[in-house]
Amino acid sequence: MSLPTAPAPSLEVSGLAYAYPDGHQALFGVDLTVARGERVAVLGPNGAGKTTLVLHLNGILDAGAGTVRVAGLPVEKRHLAEIRRRVGIVFQDPDDQLFMPTVREDVAFGPAAAGLRGAELEERVMTALKQVGMEAYATRPPHHLSFGQRRRVAVATVLAMEPEILVLDEPSSNLDPASRRELADILRSLDVTVLMVTHDLPYALELCPRAVILSDGVIAADDRTQDLLCDDELMREHRLELPFGFDPRSVVVPLT
Amino acid sequence: MGAGHAHKLYRHGHSPVHDLPPHCKLVAVLCFVVVVVSTPREAVWAFALYAALLAGVAATARIPAGFLLKRLVIEVPFVAFALLMPFVVPGEQTELLGVPVSVPGLWGAWNVLAKGTLGVGASVLLASTTELRSLLLGLQRLRLPPLLVQIASFMIRYGDVITDELRRMSIARRSRGFEARGVRHWGVLAKTMGALFIRSYERGERVHLAMVSRGYTGSMPVIDEVTASRTQWAYASVLPVLALAVCLLGWTV
Amino acid sequence: MHVPDGFINAPVSAVAGVVAAGAVAVSLRGARRELDERTAPLAGLVAAFVFAVQMLNFPVAAGTSGHLLGGALAAILVGPYTGVLCIAVVLLMQGILFADGGLTALGVNISVMGVVTVVVAYGLFRGLTSVLPRTRRSTTAAAFVAALVSVPAAAVAFTLLYAIGGTTDVPLGKVLTAMVGVHVLIGIGEAAITALTVGAVLAVRPDLVHGSRGLAAPLKLRVDGELVDAPAAAPAPAAPRSTRKVWAAGLVAALLLAGFVSFYASADPDGLEKVAADQGIDEKVEEHGAADSPLADYGVKDVENARISGGLAGVIGVGVTVVVGSGVFWAVRRRRTREASGTTTGTRSD
Fold this sequence. Notes:
The complex is a heterotrimer of chains A (256), B (253) and C (350). Chain A has 10 helices and 10 strands. Chain A has helices spanning 50-57, 80-86, 94-97, 103-113, 118-131, 147-159, 177-189, 201-207, 225-230, 232-237, and strands spanning 11-19, 25-34, 39-43, 65-70, 73-74, 87-90, 165-169, 193-198, 210-215, 218-224. In chain A, helix 4 (103-113) crosses helix 5 and helix 4 (103-113) runs parallel beside helix 6 (147-159). Chain A starts with 10 loop residues before the first strand and ends in a 19-residue tail after the last helix. With 253 residues, chain B is mainly alpha-helical. In chain B, 69% of the residues lie in helices and 3% in strands. Chain B has a two-stranded antiparallel sheet with strand order 1-2. In chain B, a hairpin with a 2-residue loop joins strand 1 and strand 2 (99-102). In chain C, helix 6 packs antiparallel against helix 7 (172-204). Chain C has helices at 10-35, 39-55, 71-78, 80-98, 106-131, 136-165, 172-204, 213-225, 230-233, 239-267, 269-279, 281-287, 306-341, and strands at 57-61, 64-67. Chain C is built from 13 helices and 2 strands, in the order H-H-E-E-H-H-H-H-H-H-H-H-H-H-H.
């Protein structure tokens, strides 16, 4: 995988370390660069600091040491509004993400907060909903949707902000196989940089050509997803296990 | 008190009442109730007319009587309270079915029952012809502090989510053979509530993160504005204006 | 007790409305200070919690059940300002959506159930926690007393409003007796559940209990500084003393309240009728072949004599206070011992 050289990478994390106020340190110097248009999976056991890393990407947590840059723009207080528009985070529980009374208003929340109004706002909302195939549900309250539908709307809420990079926290959790596949189709169809934090190794293999392993607060490995999954010793070392009967060697990874 | 909260409130439909802007309806209902409350209780016929007015609104909104009556059970605790009055209020005594009751007490009971029932009826009609979401927009339009509207909106959005969690916890308790039967089990129920509070609060924190991630800085962006035309206001004012006429008659007759 | 339309006359309702609006305005400001931009989601979720909790019925005795009002609980868990906001929003929504409580009586309801309950509960809670040793146990006990007093306090406030603007001329003594009497019983339930809930939250996330923020800080510091079991060991010697003190305080409070009821009951012979009617209402109604009364939820059933019924409320009140109070301490002590032996690293990362 050769990185394109011309534009600034979508995401550039260097030497990122962070300790929570109570002293518990979660990140110990993370270095990660994601080029524009790439789809990268972040794998790692529970408590490896995955969520902490995600919360740094749009400045919800302030880096203790090191820097985060999004499309060349450093994550700092004065750029926060722009950073939050460029980094779209889809959280694990869609119920946390969909806090407005109707799907339409929820998708409109981000762009409206950025100052969009009227017809332009409406168009942005419908485009985002069409991208995830949920345009028919615009007027429905989120809690009347199925879990898979809610996750798709959650993705739309973020797409409506036309982000530079889409960050997904456990996108496949709690989805039935059909919803899982539908979401994969949607993610593949999008023309954005994707960073996917997951335990779901087959899903990572299916969607992300490249993967990194975050373990004990550092990037322990960074390679082609298939190569990582085939490295039994590495996998064991970082408490990553493939589902029963799944052999990454036998999978033909779709070319993207 | 606890009764009736699980009812499905809104009855979907397209009627002139459904289509009125929410803030017009809120104002109309409030004015109606104020008028009803200020009617002298001796004007019994006035309350019959109010009830007829409400029935008229219900018919226009195509809300079946059964639906309306079922929702009225919410006031049962106060019916009981009202039933007490004839027995405890001092004053002139009279006989009713062979039982001594007080006349002022009877009037008091009538007063509470009639006004309370009409108030409940009006609110029920409002809730069953107006979607939750538009009610909130209406409140916003009526200049309720935005923060209060936001809190209410979050409460409504997450009411179901939290009630679901409560239900799941209760199922989990019962699956392990626990059945709350008395004071002895309050500890377990309180633990449930403690856990529920923590879950609710933590969810609040996560929701806040999700909001901040999408550019929230303390105030909700205005996405929808409800507006009302002069005609709609006029239409909504029919109920309180008619009621006011009845009320004035009640004071003069 | 959601007051319906027509119960309190228009001028008093209007004044109560102004009071409620003022209190909500002050709370909006205060909550912003407490929670800044997190106010909306957090207060909204806590309001949803209070709303859900009011639906959770807890069994009182054979066949009857009650539910929490939540004012004291909200005040102690999230602070007085946010507490008032949450209760006000819950009442507003109940009034508009469920017709539970009249629209014109909204001000009365918010003033009585929101403001009075929260202010009394929080004031008492802070007062007690500043006097008592700073342990979880005394926090729980303070929550118990605060909730116990807050409910009859609301009843007194309601009676006051009724005295000024009641639409029917029921003798005040009777209203007060009945309201306070019944609400002491409700208060005991409220107190037990509130205290147990606060205790349960304290055990898992002490940082979330607004009323005891000062309590959480030193605990955490010690965990970082010395051996992990230090915080559990330190307050232990102080515990028996604090238990006894709080136990006594609870008993005194209960006796006072019960005495209050009995005083009115005996001072005004007619007043007995009210208590009797209130608490023996199903008996009376059954005599005439009418339906069962929902007020029986909180009443003492099948009592033939008014005097006995009146006295019974007081006795039951004190008795239940003692039993439940001891139960609370027993439960807390058990948890503490378990904690001391079990969990060691109790700090949370988020």
